Amino acid sequence: MNFLKRPNDFLFRLLLVVASLSLASLCVLVVYSVVMRYVFADAPDFVEPIALLLVIAIAMFGAALKVREGGHIGLDSFVKKLPQKGQTFVAGIQHVCLIAFAVAVFVGCLEMAETTMHDRIPILGLPEGLRYCIPIVASICIAMFSTEHLLALFARKQK
């Protein structure tokens, strides 16, 4: 199990830093935009496209982080009433569904990134496909984190 835990620990810390920096940057960017718009009557054009990229990074990487922590949405009140084997079974299904979701996001975003990579984000001039690269990375992390949880479930079941 260590073969997946160590890379996932590194990925978790890296995503945490990127999501945190994205959130801090978004806060600074919004304050800058508000001050420029309402104090100096000179709204910067570049704020909105950068903010959109930062929001995508925060949302997708935050979702991946919560999968690693096991803090994603669940029906705990129902699951806790099940016997231990039932709880393990439901947790296994949950992680298989998360992996299926991650694969669907990966495939869909990869297709969108390929078809929009030649287009440019207005004002920034960056490839439009960049918007879809962020969820691609997040979906890989979600799949890896869910696989780690599944392996941990099977390891507990073997004991």
Automatic annotation (TrEMBL):
GO molecular function: transmembrane transporter activity
Matching InterPro entries: DctQ, TRAP_DctQ
Primary location class: membrane
Domain Tripartite ATP-independent periplasmic transporters DctQ component span(s) in chain numbering: 26-154
Leader peptide range in chain numbering: none
UniProt membrane topology term: Multi-pass membrane protein
Keywords, sorted A to Z: Cell inner membrane, Cell membrane, Membrane, Transmembrane, Transmembrane helix, Transport
One annotated Gene Ontology cellular component of this protein: plasma membrane
Record-level GO BP terms: C4-dicarboxylate transport
Keyword Secreted appears in the UniProt entry: no
Listed transmembrane segments: 12-40, 46-67, 88-109, 129-155
Entry's localization field: Cell inner membrane
Entry-linked PANTHER family: 2,3-DIKETO-L-GULONATE TRAP TRANSPORTER SMALL PERMEASE PROTEIN YIAM, TRAP TRANSPORTER SMALL PERMEASE PROTEIN
Function: Part of the tripartite ATP-independent periplasmic (TRAP) transport system.
Quaternary context: The complex comprises the extracytoplasmic solute receptor protein and the two transmembrane proteins.
Family: Belongs to the TRAP transporter small permease family.
The name this protein goes by in its record: TRAP transporter small permease protein
